[in-house]
Fold each of these.
Amino acid sequence: MPREKRTIPPDPVIEAYKKDVDLTLLEENLRLTVDERLEKLMAIQRFAEELRRAGRKLRGAQ
Amino acid sequence: MTDFETLLHLLARARVEFIIVGGAAATVHGSSRLTQDLDIVYRRAPENLRRLAEALSPHHPYLRGAPAGLPFRLDAETLQRGLNFTLVTDLGDLDLLGEIAGGGNFEALLDYAQPIEVYGARCYVLGLERLIEVKRAAGRPKDFEAIAELEKILEARERG
């Protein structure tokens, strides 16, 4: 079924961006299961929403 | 917040045929980037359209960003008439894609998809290499960092 394993030719623009990829975050994620990766994503989403809510409250108080 | 767990369970329980693409697929492969929505490429067979519409209807799907009060109803006929739908639902943001640039439709992508079990729900996710290719094909500057990260993941995988 999966037809993976092909060579993707390098793109100079993407190669330039690769220098800034935080490998420590990737290594941490790659140690997790798929469920754990999605749970982490939802936790970050929850955190972002809480920050937005706090920001709205702060702006409302100003 | 998008409730990925409930959405995936909902679709899997309804036996909807779909492939996870986009940012959620990147997360599955190990990306550290934040995504807000679930993007899926759905099979456009009539039975699948019916299942998809019936699964989502109780969760009030509506066109994201559209003014309130439009006479929008997500049913099989609506899905048949359209192709790509960016929706907001009670469970979060969901993009239903009939096809994607550089990747095609469900049938074209299925060869490059991998079966996975997420929260106990069985579904397909687009393989890492094909995900990189379709993101490249989309050519959006906002994707450059994401592509670079995915290619790093691919390199790490190839190194074992």
Note: Chain A touches chain B through 35 residues (CB under 8 Å).
Amino acid sequence: MNARLEAVIAASQAAWAAEQGSGKVRINVCLDTSSIARGAEATIAALKRAIAEKKLNAEVGITGSWGFCWMEPTATVRNASGTQTILYANLTADRVDDFLQKVVVEGTTVPALALGVIEGTSTPDIGLLSDHPFMQGQVRRVMANIGTIDPENIDHYIAKDGYAGFGRALDMTSEVIVKEMLDSGLGGRAGGGFPAGRKWDFLRNATTHPRYLVCNADEGDPGAWVNRVLMEGDPHIIIEGMLIAALAAEADEGYIYVRYEYPLCVERMQKAVDQAYAKGLLGKDILGTGKDFELIVFRGAGSYVCGEETGLINSVDGYRGMPRIKPPFPAQAGLWNKPTNVNNVESYANAPMIMRNGAAWWGGVSPAKEKGTKMFTFSGSVNYASCVEVPFGPTIRECLERYAGGMREGKTFKGFQPGGPLSGVVAGGLDLTLTLDPYREKGMFLGGGGIVFFDESNCIVDMCKYFLGFCEDESCGRCTTCHGGTQRAVEVIRRIQMGGGRDADIESFEQLVKTLVWSNCFHGQFAMTTIKTALKEFRAEWDEHIIDKRCRAGVCHGLIAYTVRSQNDAAMPEAQAICPTSAISGEPGSYAIDDRLCVRCNACKEIAPDAIEVRHRFALEVSAAAAAAG
Amino acid sequence: MAADANGQDARPDPSIAELRALVAEFQPGRGHVMPALHKVQDTYGYISRDAIEVIARQLNTTPALVYGTVSFYDDYRTHPAPATEIAWCSGPACRVLGGDRIREAIQQTLELPLGGQTRDHRVGLHLGQCNGTCSEAPQVWVNGQVEGNLTVSSAIRLARALKGDAE
């Protein structure tokens, strides 16, 4: 291995060892966007204050997420002798004093908050983390460091075999690196599954310089945050992956394009890049090899289509992020019309371990056709919002029960979305596996990793309006099929929701499905997937809306009416007061809801569930007409 | 004056000299349009007309192209932000847990459209994109701080309190 890299690794290992042997209790709090939303910053401040005030033999650090996002803030605690590390959950600031009393002053544990033992032996009260139900079936490879290292400290990453894969790649020719990547079978992790090695080979075979690498960290699919967990938890794994790709493709400069909504990712990636420069791992004459690679962290500004590789390229170029017409493909003319390769965050992040452990090891993890592991996030009408890494292949049922904690109380499972607003909706489908084919067969796709579960209280027509509205908002405006088509689809859905559905609407949708596929980029090509699949999977619900003027979920504005069922309910005065449009008039005995003012926000029913009734409006009108007719 | 468009606080727009100094580090042809815009917005809270012209000159391009970029992205703003800014999370986890009803109720309470400001320009509401803090769904961010696990009624109370604070 490169002698200078060996020296860098030795220095980092020494720094890591010194920290491990500090003789202090080490408390590492997960500090990422999910934990900050649940008070992690207050926890860290409380820990530091209490440790300083009481002069405790403890120190506080930060780490990334173990994926228990619904139980943040989590923290790992390594005892003073360094023999045991335990993961704790729900360590809010108000619990800090009692917690420190136990784990530092008394040197014991807090079983009530413990998730499991990470290192060392289990105790009668606390089992091994690897035995925790949430960890079953998980294989943490890309996430191996997340939750165990400080993402803002390059020494931690290097001490955990970081940059060793790059070191191995330095001893290989670009052809050998590409071959290893191809042998591994690593497919693009944003949903396409296109072999990463082939993409690198396209760039390797380019005829000009400069050549560019782009890391697509514009994780725009709402409900997906796997790339965020990775960037916030282990930024160097992405840099190392890009360095390996740079060797393979003989690239000169790289860009990490991070979406605007992830400011902490921007900060962590920038810190990591600066540290890598300081260690001589980036820049000119890397480690004395004569190779140069510059890496720039680039911040987006809020645009979904910049997740499309040529939209992203235009965005870096400084233009509107409108996807380009292909060909030419980025490998021929990308950034500044120079050869460019774009990969997803998770795709790059797999490269270091492939270099370190070989393609056969990497591909051997699951029997599925799709090789390696994949990160997924789960959210929706479920108990846990969580992030996991699994080999391809578990069923949706396993994921729902094990990783999402089942449906919330009172919610009945209806279906799920397999990966972003372009991916489609599945009715039921609990036995489908997390692999690419089942969705392709249904005309959908498994996207970047965000699985969203929905329940019977969600109306499928309303969800179609939501996803098509998103596609309309985010259309770049180039193709009439897309910007006009999504707009038309939303108009038709709105009319159906207001009670104006027509038989011909289904044909209109089918026409839109047929014409949007002519759009230039994925955004337009797949914008109608939700409606296309919803018409197949939930046809009866559409017919109810269009023909019967009935919304079974009680959501669509024009098909429902809020009425007062029980005049003397004790909650009615409060329900009247909460109404944001003052639609509820009268007093006990004469309460009435003015349908013209009511916006169906449901606030009154939240407060007076027994007194307020949501009725099918069409049925009301029929009965009113019948009464008028005598 | 920044105040002219919205009747907001009387801070003047940044001067041309200030803007020139701020973006002096950026160069043409290096992908610096968006970083320059970010720097202006991070410094002043918004991108003024002057800033667009200064950036265009600095990067050897045209104000039309720079404005084309500004107007394409949701997070560049051309007017100062209101004192209290509510970002409503439009993500799917929030949506399936009643997020759209919450939006409707907040809009009615504050009497503004999504993307608008109250008549006194003290409170604004805009569409926020999912950042994966879905354990808090349904949620809004008030000046960047999560207000999570909302019900429609708690969202109305929150909006009324913010409106009251501003009055």
Note: The helical segments of chain B are 3-6, 16-22, 33-44, 49-58, 63-72, 92-96, 99-110, 152-166.
